[in-house]
Amino acid sequence: MEENIPEQLLKVTEGIIVIPKLINAGFVLAGKRGKGIAVVKREDGTWSNPVFITLTGGSVGFQAGVQSIDLVLVFKNRETLEKIGKGSFTLGGDISVTAGPVGRNSSASTDYKLEAEVYSYSRSKGIFAGISLSGSALDVDSKLNTKFYGNEVDAASVFADLTSNSDASVKLLKGVLSNMTN
């Protein structure tokens, strides 16, 4: 079974958030925290420099265990992702998130027309019963952005490429994204 993000979704993707090693842990009371990057597609079809972000959340209910999750959020609308530049936003509150379809040809998926605004994809390690992203907050990691770019920058400036960083990892990231989405 193919577990890929469908090609037709990647072609219309306007923004991506990647959070490797999101930790979700708890027993009745649970918390989650992870750091990652957000990028948006520019009008010319190339990708912006990355904005460093954090995801945090908590919940109460039937849940137990510890889990490490690699999380990818795929945005079909650039403006939705740019909201992060104006401050924190809440998944399931400010923006709705739908589990993304998988496979090269996702016609059997529940959202085969790809009408949702944001799709989530995750791969987990560990055992955890009762995970949800709803209510989790996404925030810009200002300290890490300042450290990476060498001066204080806001997300809007990074997305607009008003900052410069010739780091090889940024070039590699942009190249991989361009190959996947064009």
Describe what this molecule looks like in 3D.
The protein is α+β, with helices and mostly antiparallel strands and 182 residues long. It has one domain (7-181). Helix content is 20%, strand content 39%. The protein is built from five helices and six strands; from the N terminus they run H-E-E-H-E-E-E-E-H-H-H. It has helices at residues 7-11, 78-82, 142-149, 155-159, 168-181, and strands at residues 15-40, 51-75, 89-90, 98-99, 118-129, 137-140. Strands 1, 2, 3, 4, 5 and 6 form a six-stranded mixed sheet that branches. The longest helix has 14 residues, at 168-181. Mean pLDDT is 78; it is low at 104-110.
Annotate the secondary structure layout.
Layout: H1 7-11, E1 15-40, E2 51-75, H2 78-82, E3 89-90, E4 98-99, E5 118-129, E6 137-140, H3 142-149, H4 155-159, H5 168-181
Parallel strand pairs: 4-5
Antiparallel strand pairs: 1-2, 2-5, 2-6, 3-6
Q: Note the gap between the termini.
A: 24 Å
Strand content: 35-45%
Overall mean pLDDT stands at 78
Main sheet: strands, sense, barrel? 6 strands, mixed
Radius of gyration: 16 Å
Query: What is the ordering of alpha helices and beta strands?
Result: HEEHEEEEHHH
Rough shape? globular
* Low-confidence runs: 104-110
For the record, the count of structural domains works out to 1
- The helix content is 10-25%
Q: Total strand count, please? A: 6
Please give the count of helices: 5
Structural class: alpha+beta
